[in-house]
Every structure is written in C-alpha cells, then in structure tokens.
Design goal:
The strands form 5 sheets. The protein has a 6-stranded mixed sheet, with helices on one face. Strands 7-14-13-12-11-10 form a 6-stranded parallel sheet. A 5-stranded antiparallel sheet has the order 15-17-22-19-20, with no helix packed on it. The protein is an alpha/beta fold. The protein has 18 helices and 23 strands. Helix 11 packs across helix 12 and helix 12 runs antiparallel to helix 13.
Length: about 700
C-alpha cells in the first residue's frame, strides 16, 4: 500500500492517475502536461518512479489554470522523479538547465516533495496552490534529512488526513493504535479485571494496573494483533493510569517495583510485547511513577515519551535549572531506549483564543531537542478547538520539524500571503512584531496563564485593539475563503478584548463589555469555537458568567472600601503580592484564577485595612473561590482583629462545588476608628502549599 493511497482521497488519486494516463505520461513517454510541463520517471523500470510520475502529472492537470490540454505544446520544465532507498539524503532536488530531478528515499517523502514542488509553482508557475502551505525547499537545488522521524502536531489545522502527508506531519488520532492514558481500552468495556488491577495496601485498585499480570499481557497482545497495520509499523503507548499508585504484588516487587516506581514492571511488560511483535513500536512515558528509566537497556523497538512541560517557554530557556534537569533525564533514557520522543506544548491551555506568538521559541526548542538526541516530537495544541493563527503556526511548525533552521519570520510572511492575500498587509507585520516583542521582553509564555501574562510578554492593549479594528476594515475586501478565516479570527478577538477589560486597570465599562460580548456571541456559527480553554472552557458559560460579573460590578461600585489600599502583613506570594484587586470594585470570574483574584498560600493570611475605614456594626463581605482540583479552597475561618482583640469572626463551611465563587460575611464590633483593622484568613488545608483566592473585600452602607 502506498502512502498516498492511505492518506489521500481515493477519488483524488484515481482522478490524478486517470488524467495522467490520458495525457500520455506513462513509462517511456514524455508528452507535455499542463501548461508546458513534461513529467517522466528517472527509471522506467522502477514501478515507484513510474507511479509517482503519473501522480505528479495528474496533480499538475488538476491544478492547472488551463483545461484544454492540447493547447500547451511549449516545454518550460521537464521533471524527473526517482525513489531510491539508498539515496544520500532523505530528499534531493537537482536542477540541470530545464530539467528538474526530484528524488527521495521513500514513497512518503516523495509525496511530500511532490507537493513542495507544486506549492512552489503557484503564481507565475500557473498552478492553483491556494490550499497548500508554502514551499520551503528550493527548486533551484536543495537536499537534506528530516530532523525528526516522528513529527506530531495536535492542532485543528492538522486534523485533515489528506493534508498531513502533504506537510510531512503526524497526528496521534491517526498514527498511534493506542495513545495516552487509554490502556483500559484493551479490555472489553474498559473494565479492568481483578487479576489485572494493582495491589496497593493489600487491596486491588480499580484505577491502576498490575503490569506483571498475565491477564494484562494477553489483553494487550490481542489488542495489538487486532489493531496493528498489515503493511507498516504500528505504534502503541503502554503507560500507567494518571495517578501515583504502584502495584506491590509479589510479582511486581520481584521485578523491582517500589512504592513510588512502576518502571520495572512496565519495562518487563514492554519487553514481552516487543519480543512478540518485533515489527511494531511500543512506547511508555517518563511521567509520574515511570519518570526514571529502567536499569537495563530496552529492546530496539521500545521507546519513551518525555514531557517537556517543565522547560519554560521563554528566551534563554537553556540556562534554566529546569531545562538542565530535563536534558539530564533525556540523557538517562537514551542510555536504555533507542527512541526518545518529546511531548511538547504550543498553546496556552487556559486561553486558546488570545494569540500565542510562540514560533521563534519553538524553533529554539526544536534545535535544543535535536542537540540532545531526541528522535521525535509531539506538539500538543488546542485540537479540536479553534485558535487564531493556527493555520500559519501549524504550517510553520510542520516545516520546522523537517528543517529546524528554517527562516521562520520569512516563512510566516509567506504563509500570510498564501492564506490571507488581501489582509496579509495587516496580519503579517502585527504577528512579526508580537514574536519580536516576546524575544525582546524575555517573559514567560505560560502553558497555563491569564491575560496578564500575555500583556507582560507581548500584548500592548491599545495596539491590539487598533489591530483588530484595522483588520476588520480590511477584511471587508477579502474573498470568500479568506473572509471565512477572518470571521473566526475576528470573533475570537472579542474574547481577548473582554479579558483585557477584566484585568486590573483594564478600563472596564459595562458599555464596552456589552459591545464585546455581542461580538463574541458570534462564536455559535463555528463548530470548533465552543471552548476557549482546556478545563471549564465553554464559551456559553463564559458569556453567562459575564452577565453575573457585570451585575456584581454594579454592586461593587458602592463598596466603601473601593480604592482603599490593603497591606499584606503575612508573607507575600510573589506574583500575587499586588492586593489592589481586593478593592478595585471589579469582580472576577470563578473559572479563571489568573485574573482578578488575589492568591495567598500562608497557612494564616493577614491583611491590614487603614484606620477609619471600618466602623463598629459594619459587615465585611469577602468573595472567595473554590476549585479543589487546583487545590484552591474556601478559608475555614475569617477573623477581624484590632489592637490584639478579635472584633469579629465567622466559620466558613466547606464547599463541594468546583469553580464556585462564594461571599463570606463577617460582622465587626467594638472597632476603634483611629486604628487599622487586620483581617486574618485561616487556610482549610494545611501542608502541601494550602491556597485560597480572594476577590473583593467590601463594606456596604453609609460611612
């Protein structure tokens, strides 16, 4: 089976081959094709060469501006194609006068190189290539080897199986028979039988595996047999469930399991599978209970996925301690595994809809991965959820995974020119500046961050608003396809503008918020724009929460403490040392702890209000967030103190709900107006960095 048979529509393949044969481009014939092209195999006795010559001919006919093939008798360019497993490089492009030679080591790379050629022949070349990413291989002469054997990109723009081989990219939904924390799929109904469950503290755990279990081995073996490809290597990930449980049964302990490491038993299972299926690839992950590699080398068809989430997405990342620790971990795994792949990230998973100008940083990371011996990279993006500039970024990342030294800024400009021919003059300079600002500011682009992080790194609020307005004006002149892309981008931009309004000092007005919300409501027209973040990210809820927020802001405007400076008496919390959100009169959203909330982690949090702001009989109102999965809880108790006396206290009941905002009221008495007042908040959780999040501190009523 040929790779283009697997990935491209059978109708397209059949059409291209039929047209090619009708045009006389079978072996031994060199008739003109399209507007003056001649296509021929290098070796007429090589069925691969013949077939690829036919395929290229069909594509040229399909993409040619002319439909009458008899019109063209002028030969402008002769193209000869050749597949040779012993080629000196993965691909070679050689130009000799009016003859162009396209050679690759295998069929998959030939398909990619054919489309590099086709893409390069847009414009003056006379071919319609609007659907293809720009070429980056020079047709005047070029050669090279793919930097990584696995090039995974999990983004909306890499979800079309017909386009993936065109970009030489992979996608876990298509090229892994078993991926991620899905090992329970090997059992019917996903239920782990008792004998395959981990033995923890003398009991069988329903949420972890015994990797020494013969029942597990046989179930995985059946799954591999049923799901492996008959014509090519298949990939399977075998890893524990996403928790810290480790099987302590006699068999697992005998192979070396400890209470914190399942690596020995997992490795033993991988060895058995690799021996039974030597033509397939089996991977585990360096994660949780399998962070450290086994002591003995693994079979050649066993590899590992190492997460790069600890490597900061910022300039000068290589000198950071976390990066050095990551490199050392990769080095340890390379000593026992022939294939080390990296699982990396290319989105802010708390905000898909604000641009994430990461391409220059990704290029630096790829060069780093290559330098430490990484053989494959999987980039986790926002798929299936929309992200602005995903089309340009996905095409660029795909190109960098082949050639990391790609001139990124120039290639990005060519992407904008290809995908946005009318508005590229607005988009390309803006995006280039954002990438430049990220490099110059040297701030972190977090994988989980808020709008404040974007402002630190690159986003200048007034400039961004002006960019959106300019793009909207220019978009009215765009054609149908470009306009469809721009409608999504402009709809997403209203989310970013709303987030800018929510940040402290963001110039919030209800009138502007309502205008932005009206623009954002257009998201319902796009199936892939239902979520703006990974967790609790439904835009439907976000818009409803804004209605609650605006009502809350109207109430908070009457807060007597609005604008009063609150002082921290307890240890500060670094990035959350700014206490101005406590009295800014603007409410925060319960689904986003990054913006508007003051995070505090001391076991006893102490804040001081200046003298004269609170009187006897006043009721202090404090708003707290409850998100147990982030270890953010309501305080267990709130107290008010003055001159060594407790002048008010309230016990706060626990809250079971997640992403809930709760108001806590505390009445004070016997307050001396000439002395400051202290608020003492006691954490509900002790140890393991207890955390609370507070929004507004308020007193309502006449002074």
């Amino acid at each position: 089976m040929y790779i283009f048979d697997r990935y491209l529509s059978p109708k397209i393949v059949a059409f291209c081959l039929a047209v090619a044969l009708c045009c006389g481009c079978a072996a031994g014939r060199k008739n003109p094709v399209g507007d003056g092209y001649v296509i021929a195999p290098v070796d007429e006795g090589n069925s691969e060469d013949v077939r690829w010559a036919e395929y290229l001919s069909g594509q040229i006919v399909r993409r040619s501006a002319k439909t009458d093939m008899s019109v063209s008798h002028r030969c402008r360019l002769e193209i000869r194609v050749h597949v040779d497993a012993f080629l000196s490089h993965d691909f070679v492009v050689e130009r000799k006068g009016e003859v162009l030679y396209l050679s690759t080591r295998d069929a998959g790379k030939m398909l990619w190189l054919v489309y590099q050629f086709l893409s390069s022949r847009g414009g003056q070349g006379g071919l319609n290539v609007a659907d293809l990413p720009p070429a980056f291989v020079s047709m005047d002469g070029d050669s090279g080897d793919f930097a990584f054997e696995y090039r995974g990109i999990y983004t909306p723009s890499n979800s079309d199986p017909e386009l993936m081989p065109v970009m030489a990219s992979h996608n876990v939904d298509y090229d892994w028979a078993l991926w991620g924390h899905n090992l329970r799929r090997v059992f019917d109904g996903g239920r782990i039988p008792d004998e395959a469950r981990a033995l923890v503290d003398g009991e069988r755990a329903g949420s972890q595996f015994c990797f020494s279990s013969n029942a597990l081995f046989e179930a995985v073996s059946r799954f591999v047999k049923d799901h492996r490809s008959s014509s090519e290597t298949s990939r399977f990930v075998i890893m524990p469930d996403d928790n810290a449980l480790v099987c302590q049964c006699p068999a697992c302990v005998k192979v070396g399991n400890t209470s914190g490491s399942a690596t020995p038993a997992v490795s033993a299972l991988l060895r058995r599978l690799a021996g039974r299926y030597p033509d397939d690839l089996f991977f585990t992950s360096s994660y949780m209970t399998t962070v450290e590699p086994p002591s003995a080398p693994l079979p050649s068809n066993v590899g590992v996925l190492v997460s790069a989430i600890s490597v900061p997405m910022r300039e000068k990342f290589k000198s950071r301690p976390a990066t050095k620790k990551f490199a050392a971990l990769v080095s340890r795994w390379r000593q026992v595994a022939g294939r080390v792949y990296v699982w990396d990230y290319m989105r802010n998973f708390d905000d898909y809809l604000t641009p994430y100008p990461c391409l220059r940083l990704l290029q630096q990371r790829l060069a780093f991965f290559q330098s430490i011996g990484v053989k494959g990279v999987f980039f986790n993006g926002s798929s299936p959820s929309y992200a602005p500039f995903d089309d340009v970024q996905t095409a660029t990342v795909a190109a960098m995974l082949v050639r990391p030294e790609l001139p990124v800024a120039d290639y990005v400009d060519s992407c904008f020119a290809r995908y946005y021919p009318v508005t590229a003059s607005v988009l390309a300079p803006a995006y280039r500046k954002w990438e430049d600002d990220v490099a110059r500011n040297r701030e972190l682009l977090p994988f989980y961050g808020g709008i404040g992080d974007a402002v630190k790194a690159w986003l200048v609020p007034d400039e961004y608003v002006a960019f959106c307005d300019s793009l909207d004006r220019r978009a009215k002149s765009a054609g149908e396809t470009e306009r469809a892309r721009l409608n999504k981008m402009l709809t997403a931009s209203w989310f970013t503008r709303l987030e800018l309004l929510r940040r402290p000092g963001g110039g919030y007005t209800e009138q502007e918020a309502r205008r932005c919300l009206e623009g954002l409501r257009g998201y319902t027209a796009f199936a892939d724009m239902a979520a703006y973040r990974e967790a609790e990210g439904a835009l439907e809820r976000y818009i409803k929460d804004w209605d609650i927020l605006m009502a809350g802001n109207r109430v908070a405007a009457r807060n007597r403490l609005r604008g009063v400076a609150v002082e921290s008496v307890s240890r500060s919390d670094g990035a959350y040392a700014d206490l101005s959100p406590l009295t800014d009169g603007e409410c925060a959203l319960p689904t986003d702890y990054h913006t508007g909330w003051v995070i505090a982690s001391p076991e006893e949090v102490v804040w001081r209000l200046p003298a004269g702001q609170v009187r006897s009989g006043d009721v202090l109102s404090l708003s707290f967030l409850n998100v147990p999965r982030w270890r953010i809880y309501l305080p267990r108790r709130v107290e008010a103190w003055q001159e060594g006396r407790c002048v008010g206290a309230v016990d706060v009941p626990a809250e079971d709900g997640a992403f809930v905002r709760r108001d806590v009221s505390c009445k004070v008495s016997l307050v001396a107006p000439s002395r400051p007042l202290e608020l003492r908040l006691f954490q509900r959780e002790e140890g393991r960095r207890p955390t609370l999040a507070c929004d507004e501190v308020a007193v309502y009523g006449k002074h």
